Amino acid sequence: MCFTLGLIGARGLFKRDWEDAVAIGFVALFSNSVLLGLPITERAFGSEALTGNYAIIAIHAPLNLSIGIIGMELAKAHGAPARDVARTIFTSTIKNSLIIGISLGFIVNLTGLTVPSVLQDAIDLMIRAALPAALFGLGGVLHRYKPEGDMTTVLYVVALSLVVHPVIVYSVGQLVDLSTFEMRSAIITAASAPGINAYLFANMYGRAKRVAATSVLLGTAANMGSIWVWLLILS
To answer: Fewest beta carbons less than 10 Å away: which of 15, 20, 96, 197?
Structure first.
C-alpha cells in the first residue's frame, strides 16, 4: 500500500518519471526492521517479544525487494518484449545478495543441515561486524547526500513511512485479531524509518538517490519522537 501511495504521489504530486517514482515508492515501503525495529522492540517489550520481528524479517527483505525490482524493471521496459522483461526481472531478483543470503538461510533451517563449526565461527564474526559496518556505511551516505532539495517529496515519503504505514498495519491487525506480541512486532516494524536498503536500491538503479538518502536521515531523526506515540498505544 505504501509503495503504491509513494508511486502515485511521486508521479501525480511531484511529476517525477516512472523510474524515480518506483525508487521513491520503495523508500516509503522499506522499513528499517533490523537496526531500528529489533532494538526498539527488545528495549520496550523484552527479548521474548522478538519472535514476531524475526518472522517479519525473514520475508521482509525478499518480498519488498522483489516488489521494487519488478516495479523498476517494468518502468525501464519502455515497450520491450514481455519475455525480455520477465528474464531481466528473474535475473535481477536471483542475483540480489540479500535474497541469496536469506534463501540460503531458509535452506539450512528447513533441511536441518549442520554448518561446520569452523564456518559457523566465521559467520558469527561477520554477524557481529554487520551492524557496525551498516551504521558506518549509512553515516557515509548521509554525509555525501546533504538534506537539501526535493524536501517536499522527502516529507511526503517520511509521512508515509512513519504515519501511514503503521496506521495501515494497526488497522489490518485489528481486523485479523493479531495477538498482543504479534501486533507489537508488526507495528514497531511498520513505524520504523526507511533503512539503508532503501538508499541501496535507489543507488543500484541510479534513481532518486538524494530523496532516498535524505528520507533515511530525516525519517530516522523523526522516528525518535514518532515511535514513542506507538509505544504508548501498544503498552
So the answer is: 15
Cα–Cα distance list, 121 to 107, 115, 117, 188, 217 (Å): 19, 10, 6, 31, 34
pTM: 0.82
CB atoms within 10 A of CB 35: 17
Burial of 147 by CB count in 10 Å (0-12 exposed, 13-18 middle, 19+ buried)?
A: middle
Handedness of CA 199, 192, 185, 4 (dihedral sign): negative
CA pair distance 105, 201, nearest whole angstrom: 22
User: What tens digit of pLDDT does each residue of 109-158 get?
Assistant: 778 777 788 887 887 887 777 767 776 776 776 666 666 668 889 999 99
Q: Are 195 and 223 in contact (CB under 8 A)?
A: no
pLDDT (tens digit per residue) in 43-75:
888 888 888 888 888 788 778 888 888 888 888
The three cell numbers locating residue 75? 518502468
What are 31's strand-pairing partners?
Answer: 194
Q: Is 13 strand, coil or helix?
A: coil
CA distance between the termini of the chain: 26
State the amino acid at position 162 in one-letter form: L
C-alpha dihedral sign at 7, 10, 15, 16: negative
